[in-house]
Structure formats: C-alpha cells, structure tokens
Amino acid sequence: MTVDITTAGAALLVYQYAAHEVSMRSTLLLPLSLAACMNAGMDGKDTASGVDDSGGPDDTGDTGDSATPEVCGYTPMPDLDAAPDVVEVDLTASALEWDPGTGVPLAAGMAFNGSVPGPVLEAKLGDTVKVHFTNDLDIEMTIHWHGLRVTPEMDGIMQMMGDPIEPGESFEYEFPVVDTGFYWFHTHMDTATTIEAGLYAPILFHAPDEVAPDCDQPMVLDDLLLDEDTRQIAPPDTDMMQLMGRLGNVLMVNGRSDRSYAWTKGQTTLWRVVNASNARYWDLYLEGHQLTVVGTDGGFLAVPYSVDDLVVAPGERYMVVVEASGEPGERYRLMNKRFQLHEEGGDMVEGDPMGDGDNPVATVVYGEGETTGTGWTQPAPDVPGWGAPVENLGHHWLLEEDMMGGTVTIDGATWPDVPMVDVAMNVDTMFEVENASEMHHPFHIHGNRFQVVDVGGEPVPAGQGWKDTFDIPPRTTVTVVSALDNPGEWMYHCHILEHADDGMAGLMTVEE
Ligand code: C2O
Ligand code: CU
Ligand code: CU
Hints:
It contains six helices and 33 strands. It has 512 residues and is mostly beta strands. The protein folds into three domains: 165 residues, Immunoglobulin-like; 121 residues, Immunoglobulin-like (Sandwich), CATH 2.60.40; 119 residues, Cupredoxins -  blue copper proteins (Immunoglobulin-like). The protein starts with a strand and ends with a strand. Bound molecules: CU-O-CU linkage and copper (II) ion (CU) (2 copies).
C-alpha cells in the first residue's frame, strides 16, 4: 500500500507494509479525533477525545495526573577510562525488585546496574568500548549487543553455545564502535524470562559531528504479563501461549506504566524507540502531534518520512522527531493501538489482555515558556551503494507453523537442527524470508545489516535505512539485501522471545 503525503512542500512516497493496511485504515479517523482533543483542552482522561480506551484494564497503563513530569534525557553509564576514545564501563546483572508502576515490586525482577531499563551505553564512532560484566544472578547468561557489528566472540552466541558466564563470574566484552545510531543490549539465554524480568538497556552511539537535540529521549517499550491478584510476573504459561506469543497486561515506557515527560513548546525532540517486548508489536501515536521517522535500526535515513502512527516490532528501533507544537499547560497522551499478530480470519483467534481499544502509555506535559531550538540537524545517513539490482540469492528461508509440535520451524527444523546457511563475505547478497504461517514474525539476523527491498511483491523504495530486525507479515515473503561485511558464524531468529526460546533460530556463516 502506498500513501502520498506532503512534508515541507515535497511529496514523499511513504511505504507501509501491506499487513499494516488495517491500522492505516483506522488511522484515517485520526484527524477528526485529534481536532476533538484539541477542543477538549487535552485533558488526558477526556473521553471527548474520541479515543476508545475502554478496552484496557482500568488500573494499569493509565498515566494519570499524579506523577511529576520528568525532564527529558537519559543516564549514561559512567566512563571509567580518561582516554577520549575509550569508553570503559562496569556492568552487573543482579536481582532487583522493581516497580513497573503498579505499586507492587516484582519479586522475580532483574536489572543491569540496578535500573530497568539499564543505563545507556554511550560512545561515539571510532571509540573502543570495554564492558566489565559481572553475573550476579544464579543463572548462566551471555550479553548480546543487538544490531552492532561486533565479532562473533563478543556477540554472545558463541558464548551461549560454548562457555556461558556462570553465576558469580565476570567477562570482558570489548569491541570498536563501527555503527552509529540507536541499538540495545540484552541477555541471550532464556530470554522470555530474563528480558521480561528487566535485563535490557539502550545503546547510543553518536556520529562525531552530532549536535544534541533539545531533548534526546530513549523510549524503551515493554509489556509484562502480571497475575491479576498478586501483580507478580505470571509464571510460564501454556504451550499455546508460547506458540501465539505472550502478550502482557501492563504496558511500560522505560520500565514504568506511568511515565510523564515535561516538554517546552518549540523544543526539538528526538525519540529513540526500541521494542523490548516478548511478543507485542506496538503501534504508537502521540495525540495532537505528528511523528517524523528520521532513523531505523542502523542509523539515520536519507529521506525522513511522516506517519500518523508508528508500528514497532519486537527488537526493532526507530528514531523519531516530534515537533513540540503544544501550548504551555497542555498535556498529550502517547497512545498504543492494538496490533493483531495473527492474520484475521485464520485458525487462531487472538485475544489481547489490553483489550481492543487504544491504551495510554505515557504523557507529555507542556511547561511554561518556549524554546527556540538548537537548530539540530540529523547526522548524515549511511546509505548503501548498490549500483545494480542484487540477484545473488544467499538463501530462501521458510517459516512454518508446526501446530502439533507447538512451535514454528525454519526450513523444517528447530534449533539446533536448522541447516547452516553458508554465504560469502563482501558480496552483495539477497535473502528471501517466506512466512508460510498465519502470524507476524520479527526476523532478526546478528552480525550484519540489511536493506529491505521487497515485501510481498511490492518493491520498497530505496533509502529506508539499515535493518537488523524486520517484520515478516503472515503469508508474505520479504526480501532483504546485504553486502555482508562482517565475517563469522551468526545467529538469526524470530524476536518473539517465546519463539526464539522454543528454537525458531538458526546459524549463518559469512565466510571470509
Ligand atoms: Cu535482540 Cu539475538 O537478539
Ligand atoms: Cu542481535
Ligand atoms: Cu516468531
């Protein structure tokens, strides 16, 4: 589906995945409801806004009026090395009873350096990053630097397969910064439990000439499935839930269901969005504001584009500029729309514990005064240079549901039996991912970066940015291209964590 919009006088072709047509259709109603919002003075709870939030649980996800709005920003991990081109940090994973905003701390909670999400790993292009990691938990683990082109030894997977970090043990991760933009790190063993418990954190790698916007805000999205009575993480559930993907009943931005952010009219706001949810695809909009996508998984875009709402699959990132056009005293809700993981009319009827309506997930509150802006301009994009269409097929993956086995297979098998994929380094190579199942799968490939060139037979216009995680809609084939500049043995898998843990994963060797 192709939509014409006009931004700053220039007509841009905005590509929407075919499977998002449903969501696009319903957003056609947005301009009207937004107008109603404005007239109603943007009271976060005003039902005159036309937004149906009746479907969600009434005591979670509602951002309320109580919290004092936080100032925009983030906490980087302290750099322990004085050298300007070395970033050296201490990182510890330990048990932590943290409050997701329900007022009841999670007994099974875990955290990096005592916070959820963990503090931001921040560096700039060309730096060397050294992470002194300590496992203070009673489970084995490895850390994966999602999206970064590190070496296989540092990627967490060889460790996972060979020598995981035992309870009480330490490990030194070290890698050069060759990528800029927004990434994240997380544990890579028993992920449906450990990422759910809180072991995830943002990575922000800057370009050397980058000028900070007024507001640079990581927005880590996550949902939790809590027991209705105890408000504790619900224990691992049925095989069916594993297969369908575990949707939660609490929606969090940066580890809380009740965040509110203080904004000033006119400020330049850059949201760096990552979806850390086990299975939930988020579909976000900010009442009264337009979102302009300026970057994706692997850095900034050559051609930014505007959207009414932003779909973010598990593992994916988007960098979004929001024009702060509100007036002092106004408040606007960041809303999440229902995203159906399964195709409609299929064998599976999917229920969402958040209901079918839109749910508020955070609030933006305008303070007094006005900001004229720092004149932020986005850093230069890292554009791929394929002169000619790429026809060299590296592999055609087939994703299929195995209802009897209660799992999703890749090429007819599950980890570790999925046949190895072998490809050559430094050759422009095309990969097809055919999804024969009736649900979406966010497909993630470690170690290299990719451009999506075709979704279900619809060519994707150039300039859509580097991806390491991409949605494969139900019964659709997605084609991606890579120059494969990072050799080694790399894992690829579905980023629905229940699927990954159940073996929807394989290995690819990029040979030197
Ligand atoms: Cu974010 Cu192998 O994963
Ligand atoms: Cu990864
Ligand atoms: Cu999957």
